[in-house]
Amino acid sequence: MALLEIKNLSLKIGAFQALKRVDLAIDPGEIRALVGESGSGKSMTALSIMKLLPSGAKAEGQIRFNGKDILAASEADMCQLRGDDIGMVFQEPMTALNPVKTIGEQVAEGIRQHTRASRAVAEEQTCAILDRVGLPTSKFPLRRYPHELSGGQRQRVVIAIACALKPKLLIADEPTTALDVVLQAQILELLQSLVDEQKMGLLLISHDLAVVADTAHSITILRHGEVMDNGETTQILTEQTHPYTRQLAQASMHVPDRTSHQHVRSQGSLLSARNLERSYRGSRSGLFARSEDTKAVDDVSFDLQQGQSMALVGRSGCGKSTLARMILALDRPTAGEIKFGNQRIDHLKEDALRPVRQNMQVVFQDPYGSFNPRHKADRLVAEPLYLLDRPLSSSEKRDRIDAALERVGIPRKDRDKYPHEFSGGQRQRLAIARAIITEPKLIVADEPVSALDVSIRAQILDLFADLNGRLGIAYLFITHDLAVARAITDTVMIMSNGKIVERGNTGEVLRNPQSDAGRALVQASPDLHKALARRIGEQG
Amino acid sequence: MNTSTIWRENIAKALSNRSFAIGLIITGLLALIAALSFVWTPYAVGTFDIVGKLKPPSAAHWLGTDHFGRDILSMIMVGSRNSIAVAFVSVVIGAGVGIPLGLWAAARAGVIDEVLMRFNDLIFAFPALLSAVMITAVFGPGAVNAIIAIGIFNIPVFARVARGAALSLWPREYILAARASGKGAARITVEHILPNMANLLVVQATMQFSLGILAEAGLSYVGLGSQPPMPSWGRMLFEAQTMISIAPHMALFPGLAIVTTVLGLNLLGDGLRDVLDPKLWRER
Amino acid sequence: MLSYASKRVLIGFLTLLAASVVVFAVLEVVPGDPARLMLGMNATEDAVRTLQEQMGLNQPLITRYLSWLGGLLSGDLGRSYTYSVPVIDLITERVAVSLPLALISLALSTLIAIPVGLFSAARRGSLSDTATMGVAQVGVAIPNFWFALLLVYVFAVTLRLVPAGGFPGWHAGLWPGLKSLILPSIALALPQAAILARITRSALLDVLGEDYIRTARAKGLSRRKVLYRHALRNALIPVLTILGLQFAFLLAGTIIIENVFYLPGLGRLVFQAITQRDLIVVEGVVMVLVATVILVNLLVDLSYAVVDPRLRSRA
Question: Do A364 and B177 touch (CB under 8 A)?
């Protein structure tokens, strides 16, 4: 008998139909991936199993866990199950732990809740499970507070809380989405080994097929609250019988066609950095004492040619965003110089920067945060026109806005809409329209697709590739996602601890990285091609 | 969707909020009564009628008369002008000085920010009553003292709200995009920061207005606010105190006037907070 | 921890210093000639000159400030012109009424507000929550001195349960003293409790929306346990902030309430001093009250660090 069996589960939140007749089953020891884009109902499925749904949610159908009817269970029964037989791990490790309680207290709390163990026994068990998830008490004493740990370490604590009592079922809701690829690989490996060891079932929720391709035994694909495809991982990925599965897989592996545009690229240096450094003063550790300065960017030099597309990859916190902000003259280096064309820009005053800014624009990660919610699309897109030497007439302005919108594929009639009326993908198109309206020579893009669903991501990458080809705009792409780097850049720089540790042709470097940091990134990166090859190989 | 339909929708949404609707009605009525008192009151507030003094509520005097035989309803009506004027001007002082200071501190950060925060600490050490005590000790009593004292105390309140909201907005990506478009701190503050925190400021202004009414009443009660013959709610209560055993209605009605006004403003503020972009408020 | 604490103490000290400059400037510099102001228009030149000398007004400003400050530090607040006694003696005598009144009210309002806030937050959206918060909403709008009048009318005038005013002095015994503080403290505490209960509830509801609450629920804790073990302590941070601010209002409220109940506290002292233009007494009382507000805010700042471990490791 299956450990968890969901049959015909429908869920309504107010008038919104979040789930429609979902079927799903997990056996003991099985890793079942639940994959879908945002809004597909993945998290709602998980919360239905835990019975932690938002108020106003109504579930129908059947959820049987270990023979028990969950939907009919009382709140007191559920309190017995949660944390004991069913554990749950959440997406955002930075906020998932109570900031005013020590990690020891938070892990022990669940243990004492269910086993009525004495303080000392609970503490012993806490030490054991923290040790198991990679936080040995010798290095991470129980009295540490969450803010003293990094994101990856906090996620380990959350896993320890969920697994402390050896649950029969573990639910992990996008447990690695907020982490960089190296941490992602580590956490997935930890979950996998815990499953093997404790013979529990794991429901692994993700928005990306590539992430679960290596880990999951079986996959359920969800879209708009309905199950699209369901089966054993190898079969799902190799056969791709369902069109939506194929669409997701292709989007995940998508590489824009850039060959036709190669001739546009001209030679000549556009941007160069020499011995760039940005250090931050150490925090005050006493009335007169200061801890040592930290160097976010340390002795970085590079050149970017006109029309060239370059990737800057590295783990989170490696200094890549700081570097980007210095290039954009939003932050000043503490040493070294930056040249744009032939002009040194790192010490220029805001007025003198205007011609430079015209030629250098930016696209950010968050399609929701990059627009003033109170301005309409046309005003938002027109903002950089402020940089032009002479003010445009209103008809000229209109023409340029229309041209920019057309280039990114936003219909002209949408110019009067507010940002919240656009979807995430459309918003990223608007951000690109804003970046190209002054016809710049360089666009710095900071993780421009990492907040988007895979299918939208593919479209936006196509758009970037197209603009690079047609307008000859050079890119500096900042990303932790090697698939993006591979898809859209000619050259790559790998950054680690503030330094550039490796650089070269994107394909070559990512195929055969020489630096430790490069190897770690490449090994950890989810890659559907490789996963498929491995699955097929296993099949024989 | 065009702008006017958005407006209409917002107004409909606002009126369906119970707090907002009730608050708006009370505040509107109060404003009407204050306006009406300029042209008409049941009796002139300056006329004494010793024979008809300390009369409980009746058909002739709805809310009764005081120890000089003055009509309490008329005095409450005229007194509302005083309360509104003092509270309003104090909010204008607080907002007019505090908001620019807060915005400036957030835009410049570093030393200026630190200096402003310490300045805030300093003013917070002087509750309005203490400032009023000092001012009155030197210049003698008057309504202006109350305005200055409450106004000064409002400055750090607005500065804090403006600074906090601005600090949470500055790291947003749309501000970075505006900086990448060559816009300076002043222009960004006007175009992006201020409009996105206007909600908070409106709500805060409503709250400070109601606190101002309470503070003014307290100051006139102890004789640090407006002086006779101008009627004020606080002083009416002071005069009622010695009569409490024989004419409790003298204490009841001015107090109810204060409670109703403050309640109306607080409901309006609460309603506004829910109606206007509740998300930003939480992020503060 | 130490660095945070030492920074707050330093800031508190500097604020106090700046406040002393403000008080000195308003009461001794702005009036031009404080001696003439105190004696009034009809005073003889001789009397003015004597007082000027007594106050040291013929010395340069900076010397006057420094000697005044030196006096403050050694507990010498000058001599009252009208009472002819050291101001510090007047103040200590009056603080014995005002301070217990403020502290009892603070304790009372906290003891009422936090349970009420918890009660309401735990039953969010229920009839009892709506009713409680409705009462609190009205409570916030009630001026404490008016509430005091109503209490006097009901409990002293009509029911004759407690004295309507006056203070027998602590030498008459603890209970008679406390008895005369009952109504004043209730009048002060209830409106404050209404504010605090609303803040507590909304802080709790904010915290209940946090991710770590879901983590705690996923551990198998009941709603109630989550509220007490996880939400309350996190919600204390905004509650403490308001508590600190409220103390300033409470102190101001004490001064006003003393007038309703004819209590011989700092409030009565300062109003008498204003009527008699005794600037030296006003200066002393204001300085003591300002120092108290600053001290309380410092204590609030320090208690943040007890509640929130993140502050302990940050400067």
Answer: yes
